[in-house]
Each structure stands twice: as structure tokens, then as C-alpha cells.
Amino acid sequence: RFYAGGSERSGQQIVGPPRKKSPNELVEDLFKGAKEHGAVAVDRTAKSGGETSKPKPFAGGGYRLGATPEEESAYVAGERRQSSAQDVSIPCSVSARCAEAVGELRSYQDPSNAQFLDDIRRGEVPAELRRLARGGQVNLDMEDHRDEDYVKPKSVFKAFTGEGQKLGSTVPQVMGTSSPAQQAENEAKASSAISIDESEPITNIQIRLADGGRLVQKFNHNHRIRDIRLFIVDARPAMAATSFVLMTTFPNKELTDENQTLKEANLLNAVIVQRL
């Protein structure tokens, strides 16, 4: 309360807003309230290493394997738990700015954390922590860390568990799923489809495919560049619906006029590269 103005016999008494507690006072209030409602102080050194949480061994069923498949045992059932209730010990670190429990920071200034902090102040385990035990006993261990600098814990990686659409590559995949035997058969058919005139000059063309493969085929000098394209599609049927261009190696040049003969395009005994 505050007194304002006037004389010895007159004046105005003003009731001001409650003074905000400092962070240290808030922490002391938490511990004080918890103790008043039955919380017991525990020395840090009194805790044994066995009280820390350890991963639980596998308790399911399985098969006992032997040296040979015939020695494999029948299914061995694991221990069955009578109830899903379990005792849980939850550490709660209290610092000058926030409290941390179950990996979540709870600011003293956030109204959504008021119920959580009030439960602790009344010596009660917050409802959200009681649910973790599924009916078992919950022990909430509060630790004072006001004398330490807060270090943000490393976030635990969690795999994506939602739904979505699988996106494909911006470049169409031309890697076929055909077997090596099927691929060899396709290449043989494509080669036999090229009509070679033995009386005319012949050249060998090496083709480096976009899928990493390599083809070598004989052509006459008067065959056209489009014949090479048709040969590639016959040898790799998966590329029929794929847009690609043919280029020379050095200097790199795209073969845009596919009506040219191999001789006119200076592609005799050349290497041609397929690009998507």
C-alpha cells in the first residue's frame, strides 16, 4: 500500500499491484511449498549409481538358434507383464529462468505452465507426469541448478512419422529393371534391326548411354543420325518415353540435324554420348 499527498489529517491510500517475484524467489517458493506439503530433501551424494535409468533388457519371445538350421528351437515365449502400471522416477531441473522435466522447458512467465508449477508448489505430481506411469507410482526428483549456466540438451532425432507424397528426381530415371539376359537380348535385336550393306563403306560407332552403359554398332556411312536414335531405343526400351539428345565428345556438340548422314556429320568411327 502507498500513501499519497494531503496534510496531517488527510491523504489518499493507494493499493498498488503485487510486486513481481524475482526468479530466485520463485524457485525458493517452489521448494518451500513442496517441503510444506511433505516433500523430503535428498542429498545428491546419497543417490547411488543404480538409481539412474538404464535401458531395459529385451523381454519378448523368440527362437534359440543353433549351429545348423535343424538345431533351431521352437518359439520361446518371453516374460509377460501382469500390468502396464510401472513406477517412474522423473528428474526435474529447476534453474533461475525455467524448470525442465521430461525434456521440456517450462518458463515461469508462460501462463500455460502455471498449472504445472502450482502442482509442484502444492507438493503434488503434475497430472501430465502421472500419466507416464500408467497407474504406477511417480517419484518427482527436483534439483536446484540456479548456480549453473543452462546448457540446452541435445535434441534426440525422431524419424518422420507423418504422411506425404514421395517426390521423384527432376531427371527421369532410365535405369531399367531388366535382367542382364533380357538386356543382352534387347541389344541383339536392336543390332539385327540395323540393315548393313556389306558392299558399302562401314564404320563403327560407340555410344555412351546416360545409364552408364556402352553400345558399339556397325553402320554404313549413309546411315543417318536418327538411325542411331532408333538403335538406342531398341536396345533400351525403357528410354522410349524419355527425352534425350545425342552429342559428340570433343568438341562437345549437340547433333540437332538427325537427317544428316554419318559421313556428312563427320561421325565416322566416332563416340556419341547420350544426354538426358
UniProtKB/TrEMBL annotation:
GO terms for cellular component: cytosol; nucleus. Residues 198-275 form the UBX domain. The keyword Ribosomal protein does not apply. It is found in: Cytoplasm; Nucleus. Residues 87-151 form the SEP domain. Residues 1-24, 38-71, 168-195 are annotated as: Disordered. The keyword Cytoplasm applies. Keywords: Cytoplasm, Nucleus. GO terms for molecular function: ubiquitin binding. SMART domains: SEP (SM00553), UBX (SM00166). SUPFAM superfamilies: NSFL1 (p97 ATPase) cofactor p47, SEP domain, Ubiquitin-like. GO terms for biological process: autophagosome assembly; Golgi organization; membrane fusion; nuclear membrane reassembly; proteasome-mediated ubiquitin-dependent protein catabolic process. This is NSFL1 cofactor p47.
